[in-house]
Specification:
Layout (H helix, E strand, L loop, with lengths): L1 E5 L3 H12 L3 E5 L3 H8 L10 H10 L3 E4 L2 H7 L2 E4 L14 H13 L4 E5 L7 H16 L5 E5 L9 H6 L4 E4 L3 H11 L9 E4 L1 H32 L3 H9 L20 H14 L5 H13 L2 H9 L8 E5 L14 H11 L3 E5 L4 H8 L5 E3 L3 H5 L4 E4 L11 H7 L4 E4 L6 H6 L3 E3 L8
Parallel strand pairs: 1-2, 1-4, 2-3, 4-5, 5-6, 7-8, 9-10, 9-12, 10-11, 12-13, 13-14
The protein binds uridine-5'-diphosphate-glucuronic acid.
């Protein structure tokens, strides 16, 4: 099938590459000329395991191509996926200007039936706005082409996006049109063969499903972080509690890992946007607001522990930092807990020596050159001359470090672990003092 994707960001590129991989003819359009030029030359703008390989072989096979030409993009596919960004407005609600701009372009150039599919995470009611924008352009042109608008939210996790797309838990499709439903069924058939994963519903419910999923996951995390904070004050170990509650299938083991707060481009933005949507319809979403404020506080917890250890005097201290990305297997630093920590440390006069397996360039891009940040080539280098070690991201290579070396390299043998990577007794053996999240009273 011929498919057009607007937006070559995370969602657009993964969707385009995976659809081309199973045989569809995909044209990806973006207004960013530099980005399209680089993609044409085989340069992938994001770090995502497996993506580069799929892009290169589908481009070679002629099934995936790129353009900045809107007219060509609208002409190409019967299916027009909108996968452009919806950054938060100043008040936290999603900014829809890019989504509606694409909708207008579609109306401006369409010459026959099209299905316009919202893949970006958009507030409930956006499909109506998209429909109105397309229709307004058609009216302006005096044309009466038929079209449908569909909500088809994506549930990709960064670092596992290809696998999530190829083997989805569910494919949510919100539509009021049988014709559009049939076309979507055909597009997704290759991903849906072993069992039926397609869940059809009305458009507004599909739009809300996306937010509900992310808000639920964020709630689980903030809940566990609250229990962790409580465990510290009560002399309990949250890791034992986690296993104790996770064994109940109604709770489950997934997404109940306490830590130094959730980050990324989705949870913080989506929880806020849903809370805004709620207040927009006169509903005070108390739980969502609490999820958000617990997370905000949790991002400062590591700093509080470090500061407490040094009795509030961090001036001139050197902190080794392992992990900058908001989670492993990505170079994404958006809303990363490491940023809150570094900014808190800098304000207090401390210096940071940081290492991350993928996010070094991104950190350099965000913070530039500054005296209180040294970007190190290895995790061992980050330790040299540092007072203490802090861990913000659970990269695999941090899981079993050479503890002897850690203990000897640091001026003070102290490890602050924001991801609970180690057993406290293990570090005890190396005479390392260990502060984790929610593990007993000395935390
Ligand atoms: C999230 C959702 O997991 C995807 O299902 C969704 O499609 C995506 O947002 C989206 O809306 O596009 P992602 O932001 O890539 O995916 O990252 P996650 O793996 O969900 O992690 C988010 C944050 O939660 C990370 O900072 C992670 O460290 C933290 N986390 C996760 C915890 O602190 N504890 C946990 O138990 C799990």
């Amino acid at each position: 099938m011929k498919i057009t994707i607007f937006g070559t960001g995370y969602v657009g590129l993964v969707t385009g590459a995976c659809l081309a991989d199973v045989g569809h003819e995909v044209l990806c359009m973006d207004v960013d000329e530099g980005k399209i030029e680089r993609l044409k030359n085989g340069q992938i703008p994001i770090y995502e395991p497996g993506l580069a390989g799929i892009v290169s072989h589908t481009v070679e096979a002629g099934r995936l191509s790129f353009t900045t030409n809107v007219e060509e993009a609208v002409a190409h596919g019967v299916l027009q996926f909108i996968a452009v960004g919806t950054p938060p407005d100043e008040d936290g609600s999603a900014d829809l200007q890019y989504v509606t701009a694409v909708a207008r372009s579609i109306g401006q150039f369409m010459d026959g039936y099209k299905v316009v599919i919202d893949k970006s995470t958009v507030p409930v009611g956006t499909a109506d706005k998209v429909r109105a924008a397309v229709q307004a352009e058609l009216d302006r042109r005096g044309l009466d082409h038929d079209f449908d608008v569909v909500s088809n939210p994506e549930f990709l996790k960064e670092g596992a996006a290809i696998q999530d797309f190829m083997k989805p838990d569910r494919i949510v499709v919100g539509t009021d049109s049988e014709k559009a439903a049939e076309l979507l069924q055909e597009v997704y058939y290759p991903f849906n063969r072993s069992r039926d994963r397609m869940v059809f519903m009305d458009i507004r419910s599909a739009e809300l499903t996306k937010y509900a999923a992310n808000a639920m996951l964020a709630t689980k995390i903030s809940f566990m972080n609250e229990i962790a904070n409580l465990a510290e004050r009560l002399g309990a170990d949250v890791e034992a509690v986690r296993q104790g509650i996770g064994s109940d299938p109604r709770i489950g083991y997934h997404f109940i890992y306490p830590g130094c707060g959730y980050g990324g481009s989705c949870f913080p933005k989506d929880v806020q946007a849903l809370a805004r949507t709620a207040s927009g319809v006169g509903y005070d979403a108390k739980l969502l607001n609490a999820v958000e404020s617990v997370n905000y506080a949790q991002k400062h917890v590591l700093f509080d522990k470090v500061s407490h250890y040094f009795q509030g005097n961090l001036d001139g201290k050197v902190v080794a930092l392992w992990g900058l990305a908001f989670k492993p297997n990505t170079d994404d630093m958006r809303e990363a807990s490491s940023r809150t920590l570094m900014e808190d440390l800098w304000k207090a006069g401390a210096k940071v020596q940081a290492f991350d397996p993928e996010a070094m360039e991104e950190t350099q891009r965000i913070y530039g050159d500054r005296d209180d940040l040294v970007l190190c080539g290895t995790k061992e280098q980050a330790l040299k001359g540092a007072d203490v070690l802090v861990i913000c991201t659970e990269w695999k290579e941090f899981r079993s470090p050479d503890f002897e070396l850690v203990a000897s390299a640091l001026r003070e043998p102290v490890v602050f672990d924001g991801r609970n990577l180690y057993e406290p007794e293990m570090l005890d053996r190396y005479d390392l003092i260990y502060y984790a999240i929610g593990r007993g009273t000395n935390q």
